[in-house]
Amino acid sequence: MSVPHKPRHPLDIRSWMCLSMRPKKRGSDAVNKLPSFLPSFLALCFLSLLVAFPGAVLVSAQSCFPSSSCTGFVDEGDFSSPGFRSKGEQACTLGLLPACGASADEVFFCPGEPVTREDMAVSLERLYRGSNYNPPAASGVFADVPKSYCLARWIEQLRADQITSGCATNPPRYCPFQPVTRWQMAVFLSKVIADKCGEQVPASGTINGQPFNCTAGGVSLFADIAPSDGGCKYVHYIYAKGITSGCATNPLRYCPSTIISREQMAVFLVGAHDEVASCSGQ
Best exposed site among 48, 61, 176, 265 by fewest CB in 10 Å? Predict the structure, then answer.
C-alpha cells in the first residue's frame, strides 16, 4: 500500500503539499509522461505557499537529508519494477540520491515523485566531487535561494562548477522547486561526465554505426530531437555512453520534455557514476 512520504525539512512541507495534489501516473521510462501543465502548476503552488509560509526557509543543514538508510523503503511497492528499486537503492547507497523522507522507524524513497532542481544540485555535485563532498557555506548568489537554506551551498557550488548558471538573470534565480526534464538532465549529466573524463561533448559522430550531426541541416538519431536543438549533442552523448536508451523506439525518441521521476533519476545517476568510474579508473 502506498504511504505518503514525510516532509524531509520545513521547506519540504510546501513541496509535499503541492506534490500530494498533483496527478500521479506510474509506468516505465517510456510511458511515465506527467501532464504538460505540471511544471506551471507546481511553480504556482510552490510560490503561493512560499508567500504564505516565508519563515519555512529558515532550516538547519542537518535537516536536509532525513536518513542515511538505503534499504527497506516503506514505499518500495511504488517502484515500477524490481529493476527500478535496485537502481534506487544503488543510487542511494552511492550517496547520489538520498531518501526523500524519514521518521524514527520509516524511510521513504518516493520513486514516482518528480526530481526538482534543488535535489538535482545535490545529486550532480556528489557525482562530480564524490559522495563525501561537503560544499562551502552559501553566500546568497540567487534571489530565490536564501543563504540560510540548507541546500543553498549545493546549489551555489553547482553554479561555481559551471554545471548550471541558474534559470534566470536580473536578479539571478535558480528556480529550486522546478521539476527537471529529461532534456535538462542530458545537459547536466553530459557536462559532469565530460569534465570528469577529460572529454568534449561532440556535436557529430557515429553511434552503433549510425551517424549524427547536431547542426542546422544535420541529422539526429532521435525523432523528437532536432539537429539544431541546443541539447542535441548532449542527448546523443549520454546515448552513446549507454546511460539512456531513449523513451521509445520505431522511431527512436528521447521524450525531452518529460519530467524525470526519482526512480528514473536513479537509473541516470547510476549509469553516469559507472561511466565516470570507468574513465577515471576508479
Answer: 48
**Closest to 262 in 3D by CA, of 8, 11, 54:** 8
Cβ contact 86:270 at 8 Å: no
pTM for this predicted structure: 0.79
Q: What single-letter amino acid sits at 138?
A: A
- State whether residue 26 is helix, strand or coil: coil
Under 8 Å between Cβ of 111 and 88: yes
DSSP secondary structure of 43-103: HHHHHHHHHH-GGGG---GGGS------S--TTGGGSSSHHHHHHHHHHHHTTSS--SEE-
pLDDT at 231: 97
Cα-to-chain-centroid distance, residue 136: 22
Give 257's contacts (C-beta < 8 A, 6+ positions apart): 36, 181, 182, 183
Tens digits of per-residue pLDDT, 215-265?
999 999 999 999 999 999 999 999 999 999 999 999 999 999 999 999 999
- Taking a C-beta distance cutoff of 8 angstroms, is the pair 131, 124 a contact? no
Q: Strand 107-108 to strand 101-102: parallel, antiparallel, or no bridges (unpaired)? A: antiparallel
Give the H/E segment covering residue 107: strand 107-108
Q: How far is 169 from 44, CA to CA, in rounded Å?
A: 19
Name residues of the chain where pLDDT drops below 50: 1-37, 49-50, 52-62
Candidates 255, 131, 274; CA nearest to 193 is 274
- First-to-last alpha carbon distance for the chain, in angstroms, is 40
